[in-house]
């Protein structure tokens, strides 16, 4: 079912393909307006869109790692419609390799796009969103930012950083009339696992064959067979952006639900099993205050 997005202005990073492309197309089909970014400054699907929808699409060139460019693009985007209703930090990529196998430069790069890119774009738009007194920031994290597995530790760490930033920022901007939702997708059938997106550590160590190596193989086999439908994800994200009571967190996909549930169970049982040890480090005076 098409969700009507008429009159909303969306700014979405990384609309060349995958989730960003699906979201841009769904917003346009619902009557909304999209300012989307790609690193080339163009998309190859304009001819496939209805002419009326294409008129409501503006594509700007942006590498989210370039903080200065983010400020320029935010200014240019705001000049077009004088407002942004929904800001989606979608641009990102994965990196496979055990901690020991991954070069620090590659680890830093994955943070540059996934975490600092999200930060750069958000900081560039916040002054405008504050002035408008309304707006919804949607950060695309990952199930890896909630329940990571062996094989992509630095990608998971970058998405954990996105989670931390999002949780704190949501509290800062709530009194200013702004909302934030962090989306945690499981495996979706995009180009994420393809050779143009996913990067690999240069080094492979046999000792990690059963953990990281197994994950690498699983990702290879999963490419093109992921259970998640990007168009359905796009529709859910649009629904969240239109909802008056949008959640702070939203998992997408049955695989994400299973992994997050198992992680929560593990956290709960560890928390309970070690409660006494946890409480044992307070000053005696603090204990009295807590029990008062
Ligand atoms: N698909 C999944 O299974 C999955 C699961 C969990 C989370 N996610 C997250 O979902 C988001 C979208 O991924 P996807 O699945 O749609 O992957 P995708 O098909 O590979 O698309 C990635 C998009 O990110 C853009 N991008 C990458 N680096 C960029 C940079 N430095 N500056 C600007 N744009 C950049 C790419 O643009 P270019 O054309 O310029 O390369 C492309 O449009 C990512 O944040 C990813 O971590 C995906």
Keywords:
292 residues; alpha/beta; Rossmann fold; 2 domains; seven-stranded parallel sheet; two-stranded parallel sheet; globular; binds NADP nicotinamide-adenine-dinucleotide phosphate
Would you kindly provide a written description of the structure presented here, covering whatever features stand out?
- With 292 residues, this protein is α/β, with parallel strands linked by helices.
- The protein folds into 2 domains: 9-252, 3-Layer(aba) Sandwich (Rossmann fold); 262-292, no CATH class.
- Helix content is 49%, strand content 14%.
- It has 10 helices and 9 strands.
- It has a 7-stranded parallel sheet, sandwiched between helices. Strands 5-8 form a two-stranded parallel sheet.
- Helix 1 (18-29) crosses helix 7 (230-242), helix 3 (67-81) packs parallel to helix 4 and helix 4 runs parallel beside helix 5.
- The longest helix is centred in the middle third of the chain and has 29 residues, at 104-132.
- The protein starts with 8 loop residues before the first strand and ends with a helix.
The shape, in one word, is: globular
From the 3D coordinates, which CATH architecture of the largest domain would you assign? 3-Layer(aba) Sandwich
Radius of gyration: 20 Å
CATH topology of the largest domain: Rossmann fold
**Average of the residue pLDDT scores:** 96
**Helix count?**
10
What percent of residues are in strands?
A: 5-15%
Bound molecules: NADP nicotinamide-adenine-dinucleotide phosphate
Tell me the major beta sheet: 7 strands, parallel
Head-to-tail CA distance between termini: 54 Å
**Percent range of helical residues:** 40-55%
Number of domains: 2
């Amino acid at each position: 079912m098409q969700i009507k997005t008429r009159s909303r202005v969306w700014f979405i990073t990384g609309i060349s393909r995958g989730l960003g492309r699906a979201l841009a197309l769904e917003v346009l089909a619902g009557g909304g307006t999209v300012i989307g970014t790609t690193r080339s400054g163009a998309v190859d699907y304009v001819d496939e869109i209805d002419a009326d929808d294409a008129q409501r699409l503006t594509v700007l060139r942006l590498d989210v790692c370039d903080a200065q460019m983010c400020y320029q693009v935010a200014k240019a985007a705001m000049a077009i419609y004088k407002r942004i209703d929904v800001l989606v930090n979608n641009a990102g990529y994965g990196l496979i390799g055990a901690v020991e196998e991954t070069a620090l430069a590659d680890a830093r790069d994955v943070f540059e796009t996934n975490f600092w890119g999200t930060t750069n774009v958000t900081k560039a738009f916040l002054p405008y969103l504050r002035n408008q007194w309304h707006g919804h920031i949607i950060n695309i994290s990952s199930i890896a930012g909630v329940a990571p597995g062996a094989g992509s530790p630095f990608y998971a760490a970058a998405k954990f950083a996105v989670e931390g930033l999002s949780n704190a920022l949501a509290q800062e901007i709530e009194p200013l009339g702004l909302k934030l939702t962090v989306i945690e997708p499981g495996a979706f059938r995009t180009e994420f696992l393809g050779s143009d997106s996913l990067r690999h550590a240069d080094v492979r160590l046999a000792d990690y064959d059963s953990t990281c190596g197994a994950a690498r193989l699983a990702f290879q086999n999963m490419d093109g067979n992921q259970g998640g439908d990007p168009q359905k994800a796009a529709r859910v994200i649009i629904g969240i952006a239109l909802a008056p009571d949008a959640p702070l967190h939203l998992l997408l996909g049955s695989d994400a639900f299973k992994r997050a549930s198992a992680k929560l169970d593990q956290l709960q049982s560890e928390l309970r099993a070690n409660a006494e040890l946890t409480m044992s480090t307070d000053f005696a005076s603090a204990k009295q205050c807590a029990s008062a």
